[in-house]
Amino acid sequence: MVSRRPLGSLESEVLEVLWKSDDPLTPSEVLHRLDTDLAYTTVMTVLGRLWGKGLANRSKTGRAFAYSAVMSEADLSADRMRKVLDASSDRVATMSHFLDGLDSVQQRELRRMLEERE
User: Fold this and answer.
1) Which ranges does the record mark as transmembrane (predicted)?
2) pLDDT at position 107, please?
């Protein structure tokens, strides 16, 4: 697995736009959907960084590249959770504290998913 730097807020916003689209988007389409006053070159830079981090695919579309997310939001979140757990010196305590933060509905759903895997 490629080691990645944490995502910045702008990278997260751009990823959200990619996740909401069924088709790859050009930088100008991403810029339009962000509905901000960012410069086109800024969006191009962010998309290039996401591609460099392995979080976006890109394909040539005319004279521009079109980008799509490599993984879903849920997959990215799960990847982050695994990395935090891997970095912990006490994985059991970390999982216990995580469970303490879940409400009863989330705990029941987690229990159900674990039982399905057995």
Assistant:
1) none
2) 94
